[in-house]
Amino acid sequence: xxxxxxxxxxxxxxxxxxxxxxxxYLLEKRNHPTVDMIYTELHPQMPTLxxxxxxxxxxxxxxxxxVNTLDFGEGSLRYDAFCSPHCHFECEECGQVFDIETPPPxxxxxxxxxxxxxxxxxxxxxxxxxxxRESTL
Amino acid sequence: xxxxxxxxxxxxxxxxxxxxxxxxYLLEKRNHPTVDMIYTELHPQMPTLxxxxxxxxxxxxxxxxxVNTLDFGEGSLRYDAFCSPHCHFECEECGQVFDIETPPPxxxxxxxxxxxxxxxxxxxxxxxxxxxRESTL
DNA sequence: TGACAAATTTGTAATTATTACAAATATATA
DNA sequence: TATATATTTGTAATAATTACAAATTTGTCA
Lengths: 137, 137
Description:
2 copies of one chain form a homodimer.
Chain A lengths: L1 H9 L6 H13 L5 H8 L8 H13 L4 E3 L7 E3 L6 E5 L5 E4 L15 E12 L1 H8 L1
Parallel strand pairs in A: 3-5
Antiparallel strand pairs in A: 1-2, 3-4
Helix pairs in contact in A: 3-4
Chain A binds a DNA duplex through helix 4.
């Protein structure tokens, strides 16, 4: 919506149709999608959309701190439009990613002296509620 | 050495030349290498070594809990032959990976009820001592 | 020891995610 | 409206990894 366009304008990013759609997708779905998930979902509505545009757009968003990348070690990156400090849980069964609304644990004092820390990522792996339920039915 | 062959035999893995060399490399260097680093270093001594063998060998080691994979989001996996619970720090300047000999922080209670946790990975990013020193010279 | 079976290694080809890049299109400005 | 600038697109390149079948090595047993 207009809402999303404003977010882009605040970052001095021109709100093209493609950019607004990609950011809207991220904000509405909150599903930490891969490039392929975004492309596959938006392509039917925008037949001219290019995969490259999705890559370019996400990279632009990342440079402007509108998204963070997540790497669960599956071979492709995921994107998160919620940049508050929080952790992520990936279900090893269904692949869904869940937000854990707790900031990553303090690790002050962990790094050797003389080192400087710029950021940390904590990834949690396991089974989500739905998948656990299924396996006990 | 023979030492390394014994480790493999304990896991009922036949200690072929290639397997012993790859595991020795990991244990001696402790440098969390990528497949390419291993291949590049071992190839001169073993001209017939194949990259595929390195991949196969590491996968076999992983299945037998002899190594863990690390994914710092650089596009290629790294391998760690020390499986005690500890964290990793990657220098954003020189790319070196350092062990942080502290177990990943307890995150009990972080996961939503009904979820089960199987493992966690904590990645730290920043500048190592050497690179900080260089930048202030 | 020699022959055969099983395990391992090798090299090439396929696959997948991502990036490079130039042409085409759309947008903004004068 | 003309022109410069920004954006998008599509194709081709790159890089990591996997698939797979042929070649080699190793182990077993007569």
